[in-house]
Amino acid sequence: MVETRSALTPTTAEERQAMATVTATRGVYGEIEALAEILRETWRPQPQRVDAKHALLHASERLCNLMSLALYQLDNNTQGPLRDRLKAELDDLRNRLMTMSARLMVEKLEKIDKRAEEVLRDRDYPIGLAGKLDIAFANLMSNLKVLGGPERLGDKIPELVQRFPTKQVQPMALYELGIYGTEEWRATAKLKLTGSLRFDHNSNPVCQTNCFARLNGDFLGVDHSVDAPYNATIQTGLNRALANYTNVSWQPRIGFAWSPFGSD
């Protein structure tokens, strides 16, 4: 017991500094826990929640700096059981931090989902809101993947993922078809006539996941007011990119060649 306790006691100034850094890291994590609790309490006044959000950002930056410093000190200035114990403390703090961050982000996703349900139910919301909600959701999902993936997200995340797009690339398909025919007729020894016909067909691009959106009518005819309902101005969930499309483009051509001195 005496030998174990002695092995865990810092004996140099560098080891004492490393232990002090880990202790400071633990203290900042406690601040972050308290600030996160304030943000979860929706009954608090908005100014207090805003101040807590700003303080949380600063505390998170301090925590990252302290953890980086602590890891450097442990790798270079400590050894043996003391280093193992302090590293285990840092690993525990990192895991707890990532779990807490994932929980906060899931709560934010739930707020986005609730807001989306409200505007869809009322069917009266400003242009651009749906896109902002989609972008916010996709960014949060990216951050959550960095924090450790689905195992940290709980049981609610699959239902939320089904409601919002989580990828920026969608499968689309299109093709082009062209046919060309020509005929030459020598009218005289000096004149040759050429007739040709070409037709082209460019397909209307389709999205396999119905990801297209377009205006409900002509650009000049839609309501451009900031209060115009989004779903009254823009159609979403469409399979085809264009409402009207020219199926076939016919291109007749006529030419002639005249040789004043006749053909060879």
Give the percentage of residues in beta strands.
15-25%
Give the N-to-C terminal Cα separation: 115 Å
Fraction of helical residues? 40-55%
* Helix segment tally: 7
CATH C-level label of the largest domain:
Mainly Alpha
**Can you list the strand order of the major beta sheet?**
2-3-7
**What form results from the Cα inertia axes?**
elongated
Largest sheet: 3 strands, antiparallel
Summed over residues and divided by their number, the pLDDT gives a mean of: 76
What's the structural domain tally?
2
Estimated structural class: alpha+beta
Low-confidence stretches: 1-5
CATH architecture annotation name of the largest domain: Up-down Bundle
Q: In sequence order, what are the helices and strands, one letter per element?
A: HHHHHHEEEEEHEE
Rg over CA atoms, rounded to whole Å, is 34 Å
CATH topology of the largest domain: Methane Monooxygenase Hydroxylase, Chain G, domain 1
Strand tally is 7
Task: Write up what this structure looks like.
The protein is α+β, with helices and mostly antiparallel strands and 264 residues long. It folds into two domains: 2-161, Methane Monooxygenase Hydroxylase, Chain G, domain 1 (Up-down Bundle), CATH 1.20.58; 172-258, no CATH class. It has seven helices and seven strands, in the order H-H-H-H-H-H-E-E-E-E-E-H-E-E. The chain has helices at 2-7, 13-40, 46-77, 80-122, 129-146, 157-161, 230-233; strands at 172-173, 176-186, 191-202, 206-207, 212-215, 234-238, 249-258. Strands 2-3-7 form a three-stranded antiparallel sheet, with no helix packed on it. The protein has a two-stranded antiparallel ribbon with strand order 1-4. It has a two-stranded antiparallel ribbon with strand order 5-6. A hairpin with a 4-residue loop joins strand 2 and strand 3. Helix 2 (13-40) packs parallel to helix 4 (80-122). The N and C termini lie far apart (115 Å). Mean pLDDT is 76; it is low at 1-5.
